[in-house]
Design goal:
binds pyridoxal-5'-phosphate; about 15% strand; Aspartate Aminotransferase, domain 1; Aspartate Aminotransferase, domain 2
């Protein structure tokens, strides 16, 4: 069977080259005589894989030396608790920007641990934009400010990096990490579930400024203590070995293309094709405020729930899969992560034109 264009929000497409390399090495990795899935994580051959993965990740993202990289498990959702446990440790206060469902979940989880407020929210318009903030939006004695940089469900992205003054900024970048260059030094912590743009599900990466480590709250479970994980090079226990190996292949793939500058160019070109079409017609409505549009997740509706359903079903029959929007938004969502080729978006736009022609609204 031919491979389809998979617009899933996550887990999502991986680059074909990466899958083929993994397949070629699946049974016997180099001269180890075994699969990466079968190796001891303490073996020299695996140690090289994880060390290389970290070095490549640092290179791709241009991570400064005073940041630690952690390869963890539990998904982004586990970090919703790990973040307050590790960092809500001085004044027991934290400020959250609510820009969608995941940031709201993170906010609710953090409320178990202290004085947590919503510094800004876009809930008033069903999260169709990213709220504007400045330093005065945040409490000066907050231990940190938390944001979700790209809102996977609604299709919005921060068009700016909030200025939080001296308060560390912590960002969930699950659905935009590796999509474009990012100035890591503007953040205290960046975390991301890997299954959107980096690797199979099961791996979560955390990038944390060293000076923020070492003051986790007493009740922090050992497995959620970032300092413990940093001191043990992400090997306090068995790491998600195979996912880290695939992530390494993805980092190599990005570097081979020309790094994140090139990745950004490709992503911008894909997103432009789709948004330009959406802006050129009136059959589909793109509900997100233009300034806040995501380059990774593009949402649109026909305005008729039955037509939306028909759209997703007919697209699927033509090999354009998983275009149904999230249940809290309805309509359609095209996730066009790094691994989605330009041709996939071209096919989608062609399909959208045909569908509009064949299904007139009265
Ligand atoms: C998918 C996603 C999550 C949830 O990730 P899990 O790894 O399933 O816990 C959290 N935040 C964002 C921005 C996401 O896209």
């Amino acid at each position: 069977m031919e491979r389809v264009y998979n617009f899933s929000a996550g887990p999502s497409m991986l680059p074909l080259e990466v899958l083929e390399k993994a397949a070629a090495e699946m049974v016997c990795y180099e001269d180890s005589g075994m699969s990466v899935m079968e190796m001891s994580h303490r073996s020299p051959v695996y140690e090289k894989i994880i060390k290389d993965a970290e070095a490549l990740f640092r290179r791709v993202m241009n991570i400064p030396d005073n940041y630690k990289v952690l390869f963890l498990q539990g998904g982004a959702s586990t970090q919703f608790a790990a973040v307050p446990l590790n960092f809500m440790n001085k004044n027991k206060k934290a400020d959250y920007i609510l820009s969608g469902q995941f940031s709201t979940k993170a906010y609710q989880e953090a409320q178990k641990y202290g004085d947590v407020v919503a510094a800004a929210s876009s809930k008033d318009k069903n999260f169709s934009y990213v709220p504007k903030t400045d330093t005065s939006s945040f409490r000066k004695d907050a231990d940190y400010v938390h944001i979700c940089f790209n809102n996977t469900i609604y299709g919005t992205k921060f068009p700016y990096i909030p200025d939080t003054g001296d308060v560390p900024l912590i960002a969930d970048m699950s659905s935009c990490i590796l999509s474009e260059p990012i100035d890591v030094s503007r953040f205290g912590v960046i975390y991301a579930g890997a299954q959107k743009n980096m690797a199979p599900a099961g791996l979560t990466v955390v990038i944390v400024r060293e000076d923020l480590l070492g003051n986790a709250r007493e009740e922090t479970p050992t497995m959620l203590n970032y300092k413990v994980m940093a001191d043990n090079d992400s090997m306090y226990n068995t790491p998600p070995c195979y996912c880290i190996y695939v992530a390494k292949l993805v980092y190599e793939w990005i570097l081979g293309l020309g790094g994140l500058e090139e990745m950004q160019k490709r992503n911008e070109k894909k997103a432009k094709l789709l948004y330009d079409y959406l802006d050129s017609q009136s059959y589909y409505l793109a509900p997100v405020e233009k300034e806040s549009r995501s380059m990774m997740n593009v949402t649109f509706v026909t305005g008729d729930a039955e037509l939306d359903k028909k759209f997703a079903a007919e697209a699927s029959a033509q090999g354009l899969k998983n275009l149904k929007g999230h249940r809290s938004v309805g309509g359609m969502r095209a996730s066009i992560y790094n691994a989605m080729p330009y041709e996939g978006v071209e096919k989608l736009v062609e399909f959208m034109k045909d569908f509009a022609k064949n299904n007139p609204k009265d």
